[in-house]
Amino acid sequence: DVKVTQSSRYLVKRTGEKVFLECVQDMDHENMFWYRQDPGLGLRLIYFSYDVKMKEKGDIPEGYSVSREKKERFSLILESASTNQTSMYLCASTEGGEETQYFGPGTRLLVL
Amino acid sequence: AQSVTQLGSHVSVSEGALVLLRCNYSSSVPPYLFWYVQYPNQGLQLLLKYTTGATLVKGINGFEAEFKKSETSFHLTKPSAHMSDAAEYFCAVSEVRGADGLTFGKGTHLIIQP
Question: Do residue A48 and residue B101 have CB atoms under 8 angstroms apart?
């Protein structure tokens, strides 16, 4: 089974802090994704990566950056956290050429 | 650009009744279509997907969906609801196999009445 893990289930941070959300997949997948989930808005794509050191902006990249130094790990970075970034963050991965995305359990971030 | 509309943010059915969750999409090319389920405090789990071929797709837990190109729809059904089906359901579309992200609908919260 594909396993996608996220470093924290719950995080509480203060406004202005730098926040790192980590995602690791164990199936050697080429593509990795970060989404945020908000009630009534569904999931929205923040960034994705189709290879090591490659990244592409999704629909809502403002206020975020990403890092992919190793194939199995994809990090989402909030350079200066703000209260409007309070959300559930979901990581996903997929094999190149395959359409099914596998999701991690999510990180619920609260920015005070 | 692709988009997904899920009709009804909340759907309530009685246990044993038919479940119907509606999904309409827009896409400029033949799409890949998905239904995911999310149980409380968990990530998303794939229920079923349509890529090519047979338009009636069967998934896990007794769910199925039918791709209707003429109606640009991909509605999710289950003949008999069970209490364990209570969850959030998301319809999603992709125009590119694998590399791009999915475009999700806003979700439908399914409530099962005893």
Answer: yes
- The verdict on a CB contact (< 8 Å) between B98 and A99 is yes
Asked if the C-beta of B58 comes within 8 angstroms of chain A's C-beta atoms, the answer is no
User: B35 and B50 in contact (C-beta within 8 Å)?
Assistant: no
What's the CA gap between A86 and A93, in Å, rounded?
A: 23
pLDDT digit string (tens) for chain A, length 112 residues: 668 999 999 999 999 999 999 999 999 999 999 999 999 899 999 999 999 989 999 999 999 999 999 999 999 999 999 999 999 999 999 987 777 899 999 999 999 9
Residues of chain A with Cβ-Cβ distance to B41 below 8 Å are 9, 105-106
Give the CA-trace dihedral at B94, A106, A25, B95, to 10 degrees.
0
- Residue of B102, B103, B108 best to disrupt the A interface, most CBs of A under 10 A: B102
Q: Which of residues 60-89 of B touch A (CB under 8 A)?
A: none
- Give the separation between CA A32 and CA B7, rounded to whole angstroms: 29
DSSP structure string for B41-71: T--EEEEEEE-SS-SEEE-GGG-EEEEEGGG
Asked whether the beta carbons of B49 and B57 are under 8 A apart, the reply is yes
* Whole-angstrom distance, CA of residue A44 vs CA of residue A31: 17
Pick from B98, B102, B106: which is nearest to A40 by CB? B106
What is d(CA A31, CA B55) in angstroms, rounded to the nearest whole number?
Answer: 27
Rounded Cα distance, A71 and A7, in Å: 16
